[in-house]
Amino acid sequence: MARIVQKYGGSSVANVERIFNVARRVAQTASNGNEVAVVVSAMGDATDELLSLAEQITSFPPERELAMLLSTGEQISIALLTMALHKLGCEAISFTGAQAGVMTSGTHTNARICRFEAAKVLQALAAGKIAVVAGFQGVNAGGEIQTLGRGGSDTTAVALAAAIGADYCEIYTDVDGVYTVDPRVVPKARRLEEITYDEMLELASLGAKVLHPRAVECAKEHQVVIHVRSSFHEGKGTLVKEAASVEKGTVISGIACDEDQVKFALMGVPDQPGVAATIFSAVAEAGVNVDLIVQSIHRNGENDILFTVAKADFVKVQRVLEPLVRKIGAKELRHQSNVAKISVVGAGMIHHTGVAAGMFQALASAGINIEIISTSEIKISCLIAAKHLQKAAEAIHDYFQLS
Length: 403
Ligand code: ASP
Ligand code: MG
Description:
Shape: globular
Structural class: alpha/beta
Radius of gyration: 23 Å
Bound molecules: aspartic acid, magnesium ion
């Protein structure tokens, strides 16, 4: 007997028929003698539809009310799934985030789980019931309903698995695992049997949207083994865990493609101490995350400073930088949005040389120019023209023989 957390995403519970499919899977797992807690997302595009309703009322909905609204999506799916389980003859009980003991803090629509007080869920399991928990939501110390940011149900599932000491956490989704690269971009992409937390964390934050980055962080912190699987067909999926049994000779595990980038360039910035600090403090104060940064080698006492941010932050950054250009004595401000970031990720890089050279070689052979380069211990990212993204992904995939 094992204690298992299963999480089903929005597309897996998009309609009544699919809810019954999920219920059958859950029931089967339970009848095999396992204790099962289930986390579900809102049905299909329910969260987007709720957001659009709010937008029709106001462009600036109060955060508290937005969290109140968005949390209703998951409340619908837990109730329906629990009814379906009853219909199949299973004992089951649903819990909102607050009832399940998901304690959160931070902003109302981008909260973090700070504690999981899982006593009620454990009681239900001990009584032989299936516990069905609403993903994506919790309650703060003041009793306010909060949501975890888009895709946050993954994080609920992993936090629940940690809190109840589950043997593993299965994430059922509409893809059948983690791939070497997005199969829609490179059809030759290969499913990975295993991947380490650190690699998955890099891939998740680089925009490979299989898992919520905070879910991977939480899994790493509590050593929860995540099993990513398809909810539509049987298959082995991908295990996310500490030390993946490194396949022989693999240095690179995956490639991430990110088109959600806009590049800003401050040209002719005086080469003085404090200038970069001024620029990036202003951007940070606007609540914007900066991604790639590069400063050119100075000539005539001047630098060019280039950086990228997510497209959604374009207006905010523009508003912050325009007045700054004069203040710091820069010559010109430019921006460009037809850029994309391509990254290779692999824990094997720590011990292997020549990975960066290989990546640049692959891009060069495909005739693709690199605008910005950034590296970490297990990742190399290049900013390129967006129109070359697919060609770049294919070239790098071939070069490292990832198929
Ligand atoms: N329903 C929420 C969303 O669409 C949370 C989730 O799906 O994980 O972002
Ligand atoms: Mg969703």
